[in-house]
Every structure is written in structure tokens, then in C-alpha cells.
Amino acid sequence: MSRFLNEQYRAMEAYTPGEQPRDMQYIKLNTNESPYPPAPSVVEAMTGEQVELLRLYSDPTAKNLKERLAGLYGVKPENVFVSNGSDEVLNFAFMAFGGQGAVFPDISYGFYEVYAELYGINAEKIPLEEDFFVDYKKYCGKNKLVVIANPNAPTGMTIPVWQIEEIVKTNPDSPVLIDEAYVDFGGETCLPLVAKYDNLLVTRTFSKSRCLAGGRLGYAFASPAIIADLEKIKYSTNPYNINRLTLLLGEKTVEAEGYYQEKCAEIQKTRAWTVEQLEGLGFSVLPSKANFIFVKTDKMDGGELYRKLKEKGILVRHFTNPRICQFNRVTIGTKNQMEALIDTIKEVLV
User: Fold this and answer.
1) Distance CA 27, CA 292 (A)
2) How many whole angstroms separate alpha carbon 109 and alpha carbon 102?
3) Per-residue pLDDT for the chain (350 aa), expressed as one digit of tens each?
4) Which residues contact 141 (CB under 8 A, 6 or more apart)?
5) Closest CA relative to residue 117, chosen from 237, 3, 234, 8
6) What is the Cα–Cα distance from 189 to 110, expressed in whole angstroms?
7) How far apart are CA 54 and CA 307, in angstroms?
8) 338 vs 333: CA distance, rounded Å
9) Residues 6+ apart with CB under 8 A from 229
């Protein structure tokens, strides 16, 4: 680092993205991307005429996309915020609502801790239970920003909506952020609660179930007042936060909802097959409602399994946290990709 970096950032540990190696062709099961392309109508929307329009600024209000999202999910446009990936919603939420502190699970999406440190927020990390579930009672009455991924990452496990409602009800003077990045793969959304509670913020993304990770598009639902707070932060930092092409592709994606529901169902089917195969090989697999599974085996160290799979051209995600270092997170790809994974695991475990 340079000698110019502000003192408060020098010891900060930045978020580490999943590997994107270029040294060989890999089956990428490490970053929870969709194995499927966007809907044909989304691809067709990328015309030369639209590219030429890049000379003009994008719509900072994202009006068309907000209206389509509101129509799809049965809310009003003033309940919708659109962002440059859902990470931007998280960033703004920590900036706007973390003044009294924040609380989130100790094993969850790594950016929560990074944002807390970035903004000097006093963060309380509550350990997951022995079975890796979130005990909702430990988040009640905290009177600080509560952040919970549901399904959680990297475990893929969920908590029921009634428990989320208890958290929201018992923190009436603080926002509760529920990160639903993976909810479309079998999870239960708490979106209906937005109409009932003015302190609930629900975040979503186009990156996973909508096959648009490279487009960097996220969105959120909340009361009009919370949405206005997020808009204030956006207009104070980067009003043109989403480019014209991404806005267009987002609109076309919403219009192709049936296509994406089919792909989500296919991923769930392949997930069930993969879990069955791994458990047949003696693996322990946590119950997942996401487009990934969290697995370990007593037959090989977690880090060694990760390295051996990489040598064979298959990338999975390994974490060094002592409590989960024997696990690997495996994105659900196509059936052919998962068959290749199972065959390779059989090979390296011999």
C-alpha cells in the first residue's frame, strides 16, 4: 500500500472474490454463477442501436425497470430500489443505517464484515449454532442494524419467515436487512412483510437466478422512507450507477420470468441429484435452498480436496475459517458438469 492511504483503512481486510483463473479451462463451480445463458429475448435486446446509445447517460431513476419489478412482485415502484449489484444495496445500507452498530452471523457473506469495518461500525458477529442454523432469538431486540442472508451463504440453510418476522417486530427502531440473493432456488421470501413493517429491507440480485452476474444488477424492497434513504446515498455518490445496457437487459429479464423459473427448477433438480450422489460417497451435505451446496468428507481434508479438484480442472470454493475449513462450497452447474464433478471426486478419493 502507499503511504497516502488513510490510517483507518490500512489494517482493513478486503473482501476476497472467488477465483477467476485464466491458466486453463475449468468447470467453474466456485462463484455461484448460473450455468445457463440469459433468456433468448434478453440476448436479442443487445443490438447495435442500443450500443450506439451508450453515448448518452443512463436513466438515474431506473423508472422502467422499477415499474416492471413492482408489477412482477406486487408492490409499488416507490417500494423498489435498483442498484449496481446487490452489493451496492448492502454498501448503502451499512452506510445509512449502521450508526448504532450492526449484527450478523459469524459465518455468512463476507462483505457484511468488510462494510462494517469500512464505515467504522461496531459489529456483533453471532456464532451459528452447532448445526450451522441461525438462532433467530439471538437477533431479537438488538436495536441495531440486523443483517441476515436467507438462504445463508456459504451454508445454503434457511430460517422460516415467521422467525424473520419476530426479528423485525422486536427491532422496531432499527432496520432489518434480509439478503435474499439465493431465495429463488427453493427458499421462502419475506417480501410480503414489507407492507406490514417499515423497518424491513429485502435485497435481491439478478446475478444468480437471473443468469446476469456479469451485468451487475441488484434491487431491493422496503418502505418508501427506506427507499428514499437509499436513493439519497445513491445520488450523493453515483447517480448514474447502472449503465444503459444493464437497465435494458434487466427489463427484458423481468419480462422473461417463465424462462428463469424453469432454469431455477432445473438447478433444484440437479442439486437434489448431486446431494444424493455425494451422500452415497459418504459426504456430509448441509440442507441447502440455494444454487450451491456445502459439503465435507472424512476421507480427505477439505483443502486437499479443493486442490485436487482444481488440478483436475474443477473449481470449488474453499474457506480457511477453522470452523468450516473441512467444507467446500460447490455451485450447482448443469447435469453434465455435476456428473463430471462426481466422477472426478471418485477418482481423487481412491
Assistant:
1) 14
2) 14
3) 898 889 888 888 888 888 887 777 899 999 999 999 999 999 999 999 999 999 999 999 999 999 999 999 999 999 999 999 999 999 999 999 999 999 999 999 999 999 999 999 999 999 999 999 999 999 999 999 999 999 999 999 999 999 999 999 999 999 999 999 999 999 999 999 999 999 999 999 999 999 999 999 999 999 999 999 999 999 999 999 999 999 999 999 999 999 999 999 999 999 999 999 999 999 999 999 999 999 999 999 999 999 999 999 999 999 999 999 999 999 999 999 999 999 999 999 97
4) 170, 171
5) 8
6) 22
7) 42
8) 6
9) 96, 97
Neighbours of 102 (CB within 10 A): 27
Distance of alpha carbon 250 from alpha carbon 214, whole angstroms: 12
d(CA 346, CA 334): 19
- Close Cβ partners of 254 (under 8 Å, ≥ 6 residues apart): 65, 68, 69, 71, 72
Measured in degrees and rounded to the nearest 5, phi and psi for residue 125 equal -105, 115
Identity at 275, one-letter amino acid code? V
Q: Which has the closest alpha carbon to 281: 331, 347, 325?
A: 347
**Separation CA 303–CA 312 (nearest Å):** 14
Q: Report, in angstroms and rounded to the nearest whole number, the Rg of the chain calculated over CA atoms.
A: 20
Q: Residue 320: which residues within 8 A CB-CB, separation 6 or more?
A: 303
- Classify residue 243 as exposed, middle or buried by CB count within 10 Å of its CB (0-12, 13-18, 19+): middle
Please, is 180 exposed, middle or buried when counting C-beta atoms within 10 Å of its C-beta (0-12, 13-18, 19+)?
A: buried
DSSP letter, residue 78: G
CA angle centred on 201, ends 198 and 207, rounded to 5°: 155
Sign of CA dihedral 170, 175, 181, 183: positive
In the DSSP assignment, the letter for residue 331 is E
The label of the residue with cell 432454469 reads: 263
Cell of 49: 442501436
H or E, element range at 81: strand 80-83
